[in-house]
Design brief:
Distance between the termini of chain A: 37 Å
Distance between the termini of chain B: 29 Å
Oligomer: heterodimer
Shape of chain B: globular
Helix content of chain B: under 10%
Structural class of chain B: mainly beta
Helix content of chain A: under 10%
Order of helices and strands of chain A: EEEEEEEEEEE
Strand content of chain A: over 45%
Largest sheet of chain B: 6 strands, mixed
Chain lengths: 123, 109
């Protein structure tokens, strides 16, 4: 299993960024993909996930309306778009394969992770 | 500020055992057996070490073990090796969210 993410981005405040995550080594639609970020000096933060089979998504309240996670099953690629960027969105963004889901709604662990994508928001 | 509380750092000598705590509330760690632990080496992809409190994925050394008591989960690393030096994060299902700890830097002396 491999998850390979797109390269680093430098963005202006107020812009949007879209990070990709190409999966290989497993049947893409059989697993969900989640996104997690780590700001400098901070812990990990969950941004949401997408069901690889039916495309349903779930986001924590903090990111609802600002994050959109999508997939292209033809290329086994997941995408995370974050809009209205602020300086405190500067972070390493990880995609991760969802290992299991509680009641089909919220994942509770991630068994494979991408290498991370640094997104820097600066004017 | 992270939802789950972990010590900032823990250290031990090679061969020793160390334990990292992860304290939450009755709405996350205390209410569900869905605690997981991840190991982060600088510049590398995070690695799942423990899921569902005490389960090890295939390929993870049995030197890593997880447990939970009340609102606190714990990760124990026995027979500490130089390669165990990394940052460890806990996470817990929390009903409508998935929350993480702030991370614990493990130093092998």
């Amino acid at each position: 299993v491999q998850l390979v993410q797109s390269g680093a981005e430098v963005m202006k405040p107020g812009a949007s960024v879209k990070v990709s995550c190409k999966a290989s080594g497993y049947t893409f639609i059989n697993y969900g993909i989640s996104w997690v970020r780590q700001a400098p000096g901070q812990g990990l933060e969950w941004l949401g996930w997408i069901n690889g089979f039916n495309g349903l998504t779930k986001y924590p309240q903090k990111f609802q309306g600002r994050v959109t996670i999508t997939t292209d099953t033809s290329t086994s690629t997941a995408y995370m778009e974050l809009r209205s960027l602020r300086s405190d969105d500067t972070a390493v963004y990880y995609c991760a394969r969802v290992g299991a889901v509680v009641r089909g709604v919220i994942p509770h662990y991630f068994d494979y992770w991408g290498q991370g994508t640094l997104v820097t928001v600066s004017s | 500020q992270s939802a789950l509380t972990q010590p900032a750092s823990v250290s031990g000598s090679p061969g020793q055992s160390i334990t990292i705590s992860c304290t939450g509330t009755s709405s996350d760690v205390g209410d569900y057996n869905f605690v997981s632990w991840y190991q982060l080496h600088p510049g590398k992809a995070p690695k799942l070490i423990i899921f569902a409190v005490s389960n090890r994925p295939s390929g993870v050394s049995n030197r890593f073990s997880g447990s939970k008591s009340g609102n606190t989960a714990s990760l124990t690393i026995s027979g500490l090796l130089a390669d165990d030096e990394a940052v460890y994060y806990c996470s817990s299902y929390a009903g409508t969210n998935l929350v993480f700890g702030g991370g614990t830097k493990v130093t092998v002396l």
